[in-house]
Design brief:
alpha+beta; 2 domains; single chain; CNF1/YfiH-like putative cysteine hydrolases; seven-stranded mixed β-sheet; six-stranded mixed β-sheet
Length: 329
């Protein structure tokens, strides 16, 4: 199949640049090549591509068989998209066609696919040689690990952060779905722990790739999310821009603001919010778990800012699903 490769360069907004500067663990990420295979576009990670024994990739919206009305510059128009999730607006046949194209683009057309019913949890499942439940019988959880050859681990996203891990010594891999709930539960760290328990994985031998998700430029959250992170992580302040201290010091009662402003109910300004950098948070979690900073890479591409490349539930509401995948040949 014909292939072409381009490189995507990231331009940081002032907000994102400020957030990165505040994160003492931040490291520059090399541009990830965008590979085109038979019309499908797949983001590849240089550090994972060097491991010849595995296949991997992050899907994009281009090259699909599904038709979706998308809002571009205030106008809706139908676009052909590579939707990989069984959504209400799409047909099962269309999704299966898209998945077949994506797997072929990865070089994984003949591999056994493992997927979960994702629930924003910290549940991790091991995929062995036996058939893995699928369809209506899919297991609930948000991370998969395996050391079996011929198995492709997958997670779906439309703003949440996908993370791929590879143990370069023991040849074990993991796929993780980490939204803010999974992040605050340290699902990436717990997946590393599960790999250590099952396969003897040592964090210093792990290569990690943090895929495209909602960026700190677009991910606005309220005081309940800020307080969750502040309670669980001493360094959480470095992952937010906005009135972090005010949000963590506020009362949990949603009606606290009118009392502070002395304005009657119904006349108070909207409650303050902050912007969360999930990539920085997951990078710090992986580093704290022992993965060397030089082994952690991220695309730094925002799903909210790049509708030409990604789906974004937060921006579109009715949208498709991307997929991140990794497997051992």
């Amino acid at each position: 199949m014909p292939t072409t490769t381009t490189k995507l360069k990231v331009k940081f907004s002032s907000t994102r640049r400020a957030t990165a500067a505040k994160n003492s663990h931040a490291a520059k990420s090399a541009a990830w090549p965008l590979r085109r295979v038979a019309g499908a576009q797949v983001l590849k990670v240089p550090s994972l591509s060097r491991l010849t024994w595995l296949v991997h990739g992050f899907s994009t919206v281009a090259g699909g068989a599904s038709s979706l009305d998308r809002n571009r510059n205030g106008q809706k128009s139908a676009e052909r998209v590579l939707n990989l999730g069984f959504t209400e607006w799409d047909t099962r046949e269309g999704v299966l066609t898209n998945r077949k194209k994506f797997y072929a683009a990865l070089g994984a057309a003949k591999m056994r696919v493992a997927a979960l019913k994702q629930i924003h949890s910290d549940l991790i499942h091991v995929v062995g040689h036996e058939p893995f439940p699928e369809g209506e019988h899919a297991l609930k959880g948000d991370a998969l690990v395996t050391r079996e050859r011929g198995v492709l681990l997958t997670v779906q996203t439309a703003d949440c952060i996908p993370i791929l891990l590879a143990d370069t010594k023991n040849r074990a891999v993991a796929a993780i779905h980490s939204g803010w709930r999974g992040t605050v539960q340290r699902i990436a760290e717990k997946t590393l722990g599960r790999m250590q328990m099952e396969y003897g994985t040592r964090p210093e031998n792990v290569v990690a790739a943090i895929g495209p998700g909602i960026g700190s430029c677009c991910y606005e959250v309220g005081h309940e999310v800020v307080q969750e992170f502040a309670t669980k992580f001493p360094d959480a302040k470095h992952w937010f821009t906005g009135p972090f201290d005010a949000l963590t010091n506020s009362d949990s009662d949603p009606n606290w603001l009118p009392w502070l402003t002395m304005r009657p109910p119904g006349h108070a300004p909207p409650p303050p919010t902050a912007f969360l950098n999930l990539v920085a948070a997951n990078r710090a979690i992986l580093a704290a778990a022992g993965v060397p900073q030089k082994n952690i890479s991220s695309s730094d591409l925002c799903t909210g800012c790049r509708p030409d490349l990604f789906f974004s539930y937060r921006k579109e509401k009715t949208t498709g699903r991307m997929m991140a995948a990794i497997g051992i040949k």
